[in-house]
Amino acid sequence: MVSLPNSWTITVSVRDPAGRPRLEPIESGDATFAGPVKFAPGLPQTRTPAAEPLGTMTSDLFPSGFLAEGSRIELDNGEELIPGIRVLAASEQAVTLSLALDDVPAAGANVTLRGPAGHRGRLAVRGLVTGADENRVEIRLLGAPVIEQLRNYVRGGGGESVVLVRHDEREAIGWVHDISESSIRAHFTDIELRPGNPMTLRVQLGEEVVEFSAVATKVSTIRQRVPARGPLMVELVAVFEQDERQARIIRRYVLRQQAARAREANSA
Length: 268
Description:
By secondary structure, this protein is mainly beta.
């Protein structure tokens, strides 16, 4: 508490009826200020606003703090897994991420975002890249997050036959570079593809065949020029919805291939 002398004068800033500020002296004994201060009706007291309106904190949007601002997640572009990506902002429909410039996906690319979900495994949600500003990437979420069991993720294979089927286009036959339960990288010749193109892929895995609808996320092309001009070589990365029956076939096949390679390495 501040004690004032018996006789004093202070200057305060007030506003006139027109709302203009002015300075006004107040002397001891002024009856106007003898009582307690009261706020005028209808004028709210100053209050520090909440950081975010109730119900919009991004840590509460999804389970386990998935996509909470400042959290770290993993981005799967169908070709590689990029860990440690920081979430800048998120809503139920979209998320803004901060990536290294070399890892920024192209607009229109389909990606999968993953984050921890405790002992249950991890949460995953599909997304579509809608834009990028240097290292800031905007992604529209396609559906709600789902639980992925950690043990259900493998990637391997190589050399298997794959058939690419598109509406009103001739079928193209290529070979697999690698495959997982939700993505594939394959090579074809003399076909035209762009990221975002839909297709059906049919893959021969040993004695079994898997077939799924997929979307191209990355397409790279190079024309053979040595020793002579040759075909257009196309590398395709595509993602597809996980089907548990086919996921088991892919998982079984990849694990068998890995075990066989390990036995060959040990016997060499």
